[in-house]
């Protein structure tokens, strides 16, 4: 019997970061925060969430920022929308 288990990505959540500009291209209101959860699955049934990756992407220059590259402005904009 073959067990199909592993990880799969869940539904992504996106959020436009208003009022801040991209550190790379300096365009305002182009940054979108994306959170993409990873689930452990067995026969493609999600059992539990392993972790959630957060990154920010600029729609103008397409640069992606990972969590360790977030600026204070990005963190503030993200946290103001997502109460913990
Ligand atoms: Zn940019």
How would you describe this protein?
With 84 residues, the protein is mainly beta. The protein has one domain (9-81). It has one helix spanning 72-81; strands at residues 5-9, 13-17, 31-42, 45-58, 64-66. Strands 1, 2, 3, 4 and 5 form a five-stranded antiparallel sheet that branches. A hairpin with a 5-residue loop joins β4 and β5 (64-66). The chain is elongated and about 55 Å long. Bound molecules: zinc ion. Zinc ion binds at residues 22, 24-25, 27, 30, 58, 60-61, 63.
Radius of gyration, CA atoms, in whole angstroms? 16 Å
Kindly state the percentage of residues in helix.
10-25%
Characterize the main sheet. Answer: 5 strands, antiparallel
Strand content: over 45%
Span between N and C termini?
42 Å
Bound compounds, please?
Answer: zinc ion
DSSP strand tally:
5
List unreliable stretches of 5+ residues. Answer: none
Q: Number of domains in the coordinates? A: 1
Question: Which term fits the overall shape?
Answer: elongated
**SSE ordering:** EEEEEH
Counting helices, strands and paired strands, the structural category is: mainly beta
Count up the helices. 1
Mean pLDDT across the residues is: 91
Write the layout of secondary structure elements.
Elements: E1 5-9, E2 13-17, E3 31-42, E4 45-58, E5 64-66, H1 72-81
Antiparallel strand pairs: 1-3, 2-3, 3-4, 4-5
